[in-house]
Amino acid sequence: MNIVFSQITMEQRGRLVDLLRAGYADLLADDSGYWSGLAQELAGFDRDAFEEFETMGQCVFVTKWGDGSLVGLASFDPRPGPAYGIVGQNCIHPAHRRRGIGRRQIMEIVSRFGNMGIRRAVVSTNAHPFFVPARRNYESCGFTESRRFAGGPDPRYTMIEYVKDLARVFSGCPLEPSALRF
Questions:
Q1: pTM
Q2: Tell me: the pLDDT tens digits for 29-43?
């Protein structure tokens, strides 16, 4: 699988929100009405990433096949570092799911956190059934559930926080401390 991570500088405004809307289409179609504000949040993410490129935009990357076609995006927030960094949006276009791309995106964020000296990665997701694949992905990347808490747009479901200790991670690869040579 030949994928490339790149900054959003070569993307046009609207491409991020298009990808996010495709990724969340099933949830946005949920007739409960709880998720109706999500579409506006996704548009805000796209706008903020481009308008605040020197800050937020630097922490968003797109994932493309080697031929340049856009297949996903991911974001992160290193500002709480070095204690921890936050994994943000992580989206794969539905046509490209179940190929390990989401896992590679998460491990790319973990690698970037490690290179920044961040000691722990934190991610939150919703307990809604739509997010089961995301939860499995985080667990496959070594994240463990740390807590559940009220929040999110749908009061029927809690939020779930996952953490990954990066003290033994270097460039996304778990290593024993004795294996690190400086």
A1: 0.88
A2: 887 789 989 988 999
